[in-house]
Every structure is written in structure tokens, then in C-alpha cells.
Backbone:
């Protein structure tokens, strides 16, 4: 099986669905953020604090290339911003199949509210500020996400049943 790259906004389900997809296919699962954390020996928040977003994006680009070059068959969850910097989206498409995990802004906002404290770009934002950030960031990122081989609407992902239904649909879509 070829590499499958899961892309999409933060909290779109890349890690959750990626792990389940890897279990179903027997492929290795790699979360790019987790790979960076292991490689750098510090959290994404710490990297942002020390190196800024530009420094993090360079580390992320290098990690993307390392992962893609070392794994012929894997499910790879990219960071939410990964496709939007350098030539990352073109590189992803040249290395395998890319799947844009689409979620409505409202569904994203509901999930982001629960996890905003652990996300460096969202720390300290209230619901209104989160909503403004999601609208602004999605407007900037959607052009990159839409370059994916496949667009997949994940739905709400608010329950285990939602997640199971999404993974079943994704497997059918990818013919796996």
C-alpha cells in the first residue's frame, strides 16, 4: 500500500482516524507532531516558544521529508499547518495519496474549545477569538488543503460511534 497523508485543520481527526486506519491496514502510523517531539526532545509548545513559528515550520518540513523517505507504506498525520508552508503540499502529493479531512467550521470550533490550552496557536483564546482564528486560518489554509488527492468530510467526531462511522466510510473511499 502507498503512503497515505492525512491533512486538515487542527482537531479535524488526523491522529484519531490515522491510528484507526493504521490498525485496520496493518501499516505503521506516524503523527508528524509526535515524531518532532521525539526527535527534538521537547513539546511543540516549547519549540514555538524557543524558535517561533518560522523555526518550527522548518523543523516540521525536515521531519516530513525524513518520514516520507523512510517509510514506503504508512499512514502519516501531518500537522494542521504542514501543507501550507514551503512546497510541503506538492511534496506530500508526490510521495503518496493525500486525504483532506474536512470538517465544518462549527464542528471544528466545538472540538477546538476542548483542546485549545494544549495548542500553541490557540492558547488563551475565548470562544469568540477561537471563532475568528478558525475563520481566518481556514480562509488561508483551504487552498492548500484542497490540493489533496481526496476530500473526506469527517462529520462531527463527537462520539465513538461518529469516529467508527467515519473510519468505515474512509476505508470504503480509499478501497482498503
Residues:
Amino acid at each position: 500500500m502507498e503512503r497515505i497523508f492525512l491533512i486538515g485543520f487542527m482537531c479535524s481527526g488526523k491522529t484519531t482516524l490515522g491510528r484507526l486506519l493504521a490498525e485496520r491496514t496493518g501499516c505503521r502510523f506516524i503523527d508528524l507532531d509526535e515524531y518532532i517531539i521525539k526527535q527534538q526532545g521537547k513539546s511543540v509548545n516549547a519549540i514555538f516558544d524557543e524558535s517561533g513559528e518560522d523555526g518550527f515550520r522548518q523543523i516540521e518540513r525536515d521531519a516530513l521529508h525524513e518520514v516520507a523517505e523512510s517509510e514506503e507504506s504508512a499512514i502519516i498525520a501531518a500537522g494542521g499547518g504542514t501543507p501550507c508552508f514551503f512546497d510541503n503540499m506538492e511534496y506530500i502529493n508526490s510521495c503518496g495519496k493525500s486525504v483532506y479531512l474536512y470538517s465544518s467550521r462549527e464542528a471544528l470550533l466545538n472540538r477546538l474549545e476542548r483542546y485549545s490550552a494544549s495548542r500553541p496557536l490557540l492558547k488563551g483564546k475565548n470562544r469568540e477569538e477561537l471563532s475568528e482564528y478558525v475563520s481566518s486560518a481556514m480562509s488561508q489554509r483551504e487552498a492548500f488543503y484542497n490540493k489533496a488527492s481526496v476530500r473526506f468530510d469527517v462529520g462531527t467526531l463527537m462520539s465513538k460511534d461518529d469516529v467508527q462511522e467515519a473510519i468505515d466510510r474512509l476505508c470504503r473511499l480509499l478501497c482498503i
Remarks:
- The chain has a mean pLDDT of 94.
